[in-house]
């Protein structure tokens, strides 16, 4: 599993890094866990790493493990054993990276304005449903000291400031750069011929008896009759939700645009003869039963224009550039640091 580094995503606002870096998730202690779930997710303040002499504890590590695997609460506070090693390794790399960035911010003598620190503390407090929940965190994580909490918030904001200088401010992508990527990678913007369809399907049981096959055909004929009476996308979709037996019924039967190579041959043959908004006849798709198709759009093969993809290309390139800058910063800081995993 590739470690998921989230620091750049956490720097959109002051509150995000503060929230992520402060709140250690506490797993339930009473519910029984499945045998394939790791139980060692209770932070006790045990040292797990030393970075240039600064000690990081299992509180930092488990907080980051929960960031990487937010579904741990669905596993009664634990992480599946098969994933635990990779998640722990990714979390360790992340908390070491945060500490290195923080230490670099101190080395550069970066500071946080008191007003900004106060605002971040207020926004952090708002995340808690009650004052009691907030006080419980301060008592458990910071020995009841608001000073220790504010120091932790300031640390998060300094990490934020460093990442802004080293990554965010340097990862912008111009329209010209996006256009160059578009021109150099034409195959990425090709559109295959596709058909946007809705379906209503009747699916007989596996190894159906002759009587079950006959009943399925009767239901399919009735579905066709009702489908032919629909006039709009919504009418067909509501009918699909009511009577269809395929998985798309929960989405009004809507398959969106399907590459023509992925359509069953019988369906492809039918939709090629249809006009948009037309409902097909009954299509026999073998063991998978019967289906009725509404064609919403026939999308011809082509290429998306730069105007259509400009924003998404810029976003993609910005994320790639930001990750490269973050990786380079991590490597640079690690090269001159003393890091010990305990």
Fold and architecture overview:
The chain contains eleven helices and eleven strands. The chain has two domains: 9-174 and 316-341, Orthogonal Bundle (Triger factor/SurA peptide-binding fold); 193-300, Chitinase A, domain 3 (Roll). Strand 8 and strand 9 form a beta hairpin. Helix 3 crosses helix 6 (146-166) and helix 7 packs across helix 11 (306-335). The strands form four sheets. The protein has a four-stranded antiparallel beta sheet, sandwiched between helices. Mean pLDDT is 85; it is low at 1-20 and 23-39. The chain starts with 14 loop residues before the first helix and ends with a strand. By secondary structure, the protein is an alpha+beta fold.
**How many H/I helical runs?**
11
The computed structural class is alpha+beta
Q: Give the percentage of residues in beta strands.
A: 5-15%
CATH class of the largest domain: Mainly Alpha
